[in-house]
Design a protein that fits this description.
- The protein is mostly helical and 301 residues long.
- The protein has one domain: Farnesyl Diphosphate Synthase (Orthogonal Bundle).
- It is 71% helix and 1% strand.
- The protein contains 15 helices and two strands.
- Helix 1 crosses helix 4 and helix 7 packs antiparallel against helix 10.
Length: 301
């Protein structure tokens, strides 16, 4: 958060307003439970409405505000981003992946329902994300196609899915810093970069500004993962909403394991500085993005 208490309070209020906004929009786009298909639809809602920081939708709204785009024009991409994120968490928690039993302070989807229902719920959430974008009345056709393409690239074999595959293959194997960052630029960073890119596409940002925003988002994505790794060591299960020490228990490569806690904290600060440097010379309307980068590095869960 910004050092100025008033600025910090203002940023916190904006974050909460955007979280409430996307939560309401997500409820509108999720299918209501019906007697015929209640279990699948309830599992989808369970996965999406469990809370969370909503970092990706918030980044989308904040970027849009900096570029002069009304929040209403970004509800569809904000929802699509969170739906893809929710699907990824459901699948990451499965026994074939990370085999987690706790997410956001409550049983993971496959524990609350069953493994097959969790797989189908994740599949359905991913499909719904692209359906929401395709149906968005606030987007013209060319912008809609560009957003669908960007989200698809960030989610698939060139983005998040690749990162997860690398992560699974790296268990029990030490990685160097370059390898670790390559993994997380895909697993975590790709969708965070897409969060900024979708808003920039909606505002028809020029190539130069798009590149600067992408450098900002890439740094924020790395910082987010570094802090996640730090919190896995330093925070407790109640604060995290998931088992503390899970990465170490699985012998996963992490920033603290590679750099030490102090080294990981320094690296997080360096990535935050890189995010701010990407915005050098841009006006005060980008202060929300600057504050979000600080929030990512300073968060406690």
């Amino acid at each position: 958060m910004p050092d100025d208490p008033a600025a910090g309070a203002a940023l916190a209020a904006r974050l909460e307003a955007w979280r409430r906004r996307v939560d309401a929009a997500l409820l509108d786009c999720l299918p209501p439970p019906t007697a015929e298909h209640q279990r699948l639809q309830t599992a989808m809602r369970y996965a999406v409405t469990a809370g969370g920081k909503r970092v990706r939708p918030v980044l989308c709204y904040a970027t849009g505000e900096a570029l002069g785009t009304p929040a209403a024009a970004l509800d569809a991409p904000a929802c699509a981003l969170e739906l893809v994120h929710a699907y990824s968490l459901v699948h990451d928690d499965l026994p074939a992946m990370d085999d987690d039993e706790l997410r956001r302070g409550r049983p993971t989807c496959h524990i609350a329902f069953d493994e097959a229902t969790a797989i189908l719920a994740g599949d359905a959430l991913q499909a719904l994300a692209f359906d929401v974008l395709a149906r968005a009345e606030t987007l013209d056709a060319s912008c809609c196609v560009a957003m669908i393409r960007a989200l698809g690239e960030a989610s698939g074999a060139a983005g998040m899915a690749l990162g997860q595959a690398i992560d699974l293959a790296a268990v029990g194997r030490p990685l160097g810093l370059a390898e670790l960052e390559y993994m997380h630029r895909h697993k975590t960073g790709a969708l965070i970069r897409a969060s900024v890119r979708l808003a920039a596409l909606g505002a028809a940002a020029d190539d130069a500004l798009m590149a600067r925003l992408d450098r900002y988002a890439a740094a924020v994505g790395l910082a987010f993962q570094i802090v996640d790794d730090i919190l896995d060591v330093t925070a407790d299960t109640a604060t995290l909403g998931k088992p503390q020490g899970a990465d170490a228990a699985r012998d996963k490569p992490t920033y603290p394991a590679l750099l030490g806690l102090d080294g990981a904290r320094r690296h997080a600060a360096q990535t935050h500085a890189a995010a701010l440097a990407a915005l050098d010379g841009l006006g005060a309307q980008f202060d929300l993005l600057r504050g979000l980068s600080a929030y990512v590095v300073e968060r406690s869960n």
